[in-house]
């Protein structure tokens, strides 16, 4: 299931646009294909890309990019309802401040910064993820949620959705790591950041998502409690999500 040939849509203007469908959940169910998509930013989509998504019925986009990111690289599609759920890219600013101050940031320090960022998703940005679930519960019309690279903010959102649907955690991690196979790192020829540090910033590691999951376990008592008590996705809402987004295999 994981390597279904249609998981990646292979769009010209977004390398990390992919379907969450097909993953096995509980009780012989699986996530429906062509309902839930995750992606890097959508501002570079070609007209053909837009036509492909329109043919799939994708009519909702949820954008986790920060206010400045969104303003700098906007997009606008006919027939596409856009919803801004901004989470500011704090790790980028921290890196810039350290480098500008003359500190030689190491890959290990960058991993720690990324882990801190993921813990912040859990503690500081829960309202954004709660809003996404509210929209998921309102309609099962095909949607895409994304950030800039489609790997961190989007990756945590995808993990929460799949876990809420009953997809096993090891499969959730496999989906998360697919970014490393698909995402095309932007050309940064003028960057002062060492390449080995960029490789940490623009890729994903199990340690990043694990940091978020550990925070969920330690501070909220587990995924089910976090979904219910923090995101407003209790047993009734999870049952509704499963009815909307799962199908019999």
Automatic annotation (TrEMBL):
EC code: 3.1.3.48
Domain Tyrosine specific protein phosphatases: 127-195
InterPro entries reported for this sequence: Prot-tyrosine_phosphatase-like, Tyr/Ser_Pase_IphP-type, Tyr_Pase_AS, Tyr_Pase_dom
The organism's place on the tree of life at top rank: Bacteria
Molecular function per GO: protein tyrosine phosphatase activity
PROSITE patterns for the chain: TYR_PHOSPHATASE_1, TYR_PHOSPHATASE_2
Name of the molecule in the record: Protein-tyrosine phosphatase
Pfam families from the UniProt entry: Y_phosphatase3
Top-rank EC class of the record's enzyme: hydrolase
UniProt keywords, alphabetically: Hydrolase
Originating organism: Ottowia thiooxydans
